[in-house]
Amino acid sequence: MDTLEVLKTRRSIRKFRPDAVDEEVLARILEAGEYAPTGMGAQSPIIIAVTNRELRDRIAAENAEICGRPGTDPFYGAPVILLVAAENRPTAVYDGSCVIANLMNAAWALGVGSCWIHRAKEELELPFGRQLLKDLGIEGDYIGVGHVALGYVDGQPPLPKPRKANWVYRVK
Amino acid sequence: MDTLEVLKTRRSIRKFRPDAVDEEVLARILEAGEYAPTGMGAQSPIIIAVTNRELRDRIAAENAEICGRPGTDPFYGAPVILLVAAENRPTAVYDGSCVIANLMNAAWALGVGSCWIHRAKEELELPFGRQLLKDLGIEGDYIGVGHVALGYVDGQPPLPKPRKANWVYRVK
Q1: What is the pTM of this model?
Q2: Computed from CA positions of residues B88, B89, B90, B95, in that sequence, does the dihedral angle turn out positive or negative?
Q3: Candidates 3.20.20.70, 3.40.50.300, 2.60.40.420, 3.40.109.10; correct CATH number of B3-151?
Q4: I need a surface site. Which of A63, A109, B1, B99 has the fewest CB within 10 A?
């Protein structure tokens, strides 16, 4: 697939196979995230890449609590969770979002499905999230921007919904 | 270039040739923006694509005023300005940022340079911005997320700065 095809065919995946994502593939996806644009090129975001089953399940449980659906798995069974946070500066959410976009597009280019899962902000504000950063030796004021659920697609990926009218206003 | 190469080599361009971007190329870039992920697939963002010289210069002038550098061109001479806004909902900034990331990556894949220019939020809050939306028949509560300056690169594109240490925290 060429890049335009990747950008156009990537869809949010909500059904994953439990198989681990190949480590080399994961490394390439993460590297693409590092090269996303950031305000003033400050590279303020970080990516916490979790394949550890216990931590993956704990994040899922915390996330489910936050959205009021305890006991469910908001990550749709994906074996990998990428938690993107950014230094608390004015462009934090913009920067972190671009990292997530790169991660999702790189994944799709490499045959890996993904879905943006929100509530990272709330998660990192909880004692659980603060402790997680501390355990990883991450100092400073970071805010959660989003998660990427990552894994191989179970079944057929969905087709894109038709695009809305009036996406683009063209002033020539 | 394959997709991973595009994501990794795209850099912010701050020197543009004045030549118009080919209309077919511009259309493909815009289409890639339409397929960015949005919260709940709601497709809440819009893209105002400006090549009209008068409006392009007016946006540049307003933007320069906002950042306290009147008389300068914050768009580095780029012939195209893409203004991305999103419906005022909780995921507006996240969604609009993903659209911008797609626009910039698609542009790079097609040999077109880009730079994210901020202050779209302030711009659309001014009478100028409110009138612009009105003139285009855009109703509802939209917030500005960002601009993309777009054009052919003048000179050699810059090499990426080295990536910082500790971009990724890997929990296996």
Answers
A1: 0.98
A2: negative
A3: 3.40.109.10
A4: B1
